[in-house]
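Handout, page 2. Input:
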Amino acid sequence: MATKIHGKNGVLYLSPGTGEAVAVASQVEWSLSLERTLADASDKDTDWNTNLEGLKAWSGSLTARYDEATQTVEDAALASGTSKIYLYENSSTTSRYWYGDCWPDFSISSPKDGVTDISGNFTGDDELGRKTT
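Output:
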């Protein structure tokens, strides 16, 4: 039987520049996407497309409640160079996670009738790793 996990257990760690990766405070959600490019290799002699795999790329996003006591996302986005990122689907299973180097950015939203949030996107730099044991 499949083991399901609740999204509240997911956590994203980010290094602010060259520092140690820390959990982004007050996380609401994060997402991770893996894409691959495909080149159409079909010809006129077939009724079906044939594709060749090209390069892979990864990216994602995060949203957190803005916390004046921590600037992890801002510091990572302002740093020169890439930042380390670690994404755990279940924080109690610390031996399973995604990791890599990324280029983060951020935006802050402060609605007149809501909570101030910080959100950001990250673009992977080179390979996305997966630790499963």
